[in-house]
Amino acid sequence: MPPTIDRRHLLLAGSLAAALPGGTPAAPLLESDGREIDLWPGGTPGGAHVTAAEKVEDLAPGVTPRNRVVWHVRRPLITVFEPRARPRGITFLVIPGGGYQRVVIDREGFDTAAFFTEQGYGAAVLRYRLPGDRWAAGPDAPVHDGLRALRWLRANSAVGTRLGVIGFSAGGHLAGRLITEPALASPTYDALDDVVARPDLAALIYPVIFTTGEAAHAGSAQQLIAAGVAPTDGALARYEPHAHVSAATPPTMLVHAADDRSVPVENSLRMFAALRATGVATELHVFDSGGHGFGMRSIAGKSVASWPMLVANWAAAHAAA
User: Fold this and answer.
1) Which run of H or of E encompasses 127?
2) Residues ≥6 apart with Cβ < 8 Å to 142
């Protein structure tokens, strides 16, 4: 193996160490460690007016660990990783954020998969379409990709495997829509259309919930407007997950930092209130500090470093319930 890979593995392992019990680092993951699944193998639907080219950008070329983002996703996919410890019977669909302008595949995607597979969970990192790229489905395009990914995972997992979603920031908004709108109409495509898409549990990490008001994330809301949503509170409110919580919404954990200036903690507080009011099993962890986008890399030495294990233990408890 080339020395650059060895060095990157070492550094990424160190960056994850604080999140693991006893400081034991998780072995990092590369795309080659998993299985890449094209979500729409016969061609991504609704792309007749999409002109932007997909681009993977390394935000710090030559620096390890990598920090890549994907712009203008044209080929939605999941990278599927098997558990690297005794299987717990749960596979997580990991949904990175990026303000609906890009997909942060390393910091919130593969880093997260590395931790959870080390804990005995399966993981599939989602690369989803962005709503403002002129897809026919507009703001629902990323949701269709998420539903498609859940259907594929359910159809191709061992009998009895439960499915969870972990979403970050705008990916948390997408995860919020997946758990509250699992029957959202998708393009008729193939036999997977008949597979149940509802996940069994969810973890929303500093999620975008509001698309209107002072606590809204303006960047994500602007991308919904670019996708064809009228720039009014009435139109944008349709895309707020808390408004669609029902008794069918699966158990959901929320994680946020009180000092998040990008996506205010009120987003998680509102979602938590909606879940409680509807009788959905829920748990909320608000950390005093951590800011926004801490993921797995910006948590060493902070109380927020406990979030991955909190989610892992909570998911295990609900799997046994």
Assistant:
1) strand 122-127
2) 100, 128, 129, 130, 131, 174
Beta strands at 162-168 and 201-205: parallel, antiparallel or unpaired: parallel
- Predicted TM-score (pTM) of this structure: 0.93
The pLDDT of 194-204, averaged and rounded, is 97
Listed in sequence order, the DSSP H helices in the chain are 3-16, 111-118, 141-156, 170-180, 218-226, 233-236, 266-278, 307-320
The string of DSSP codes covering 1-31 is --HHHHHHHHHHHHHHGGGSGGGPPPPP--G
Residue 277: Cβ-neighbour burial (10 angstroms; 0-12, 13-18, 19+): exposed
pLDDT digits (tens, 9 = 90+) for 31-85: 899 999 999 999 999 999 999 999 999 999 988 888 999 999 999 999 999 999 9
* Residue whose entry in the numeric block shows the structure tokens 């996703």: 73
Residue 171 near residue 108 (C-beta atoms within 8 A): yes
Q: Please tell me the predicted confidence (pLDDT) of residue 18.
A: 41
First to last CA, the chain: 43
- Joined together, the tokens standing for residue 219 give 């960047």
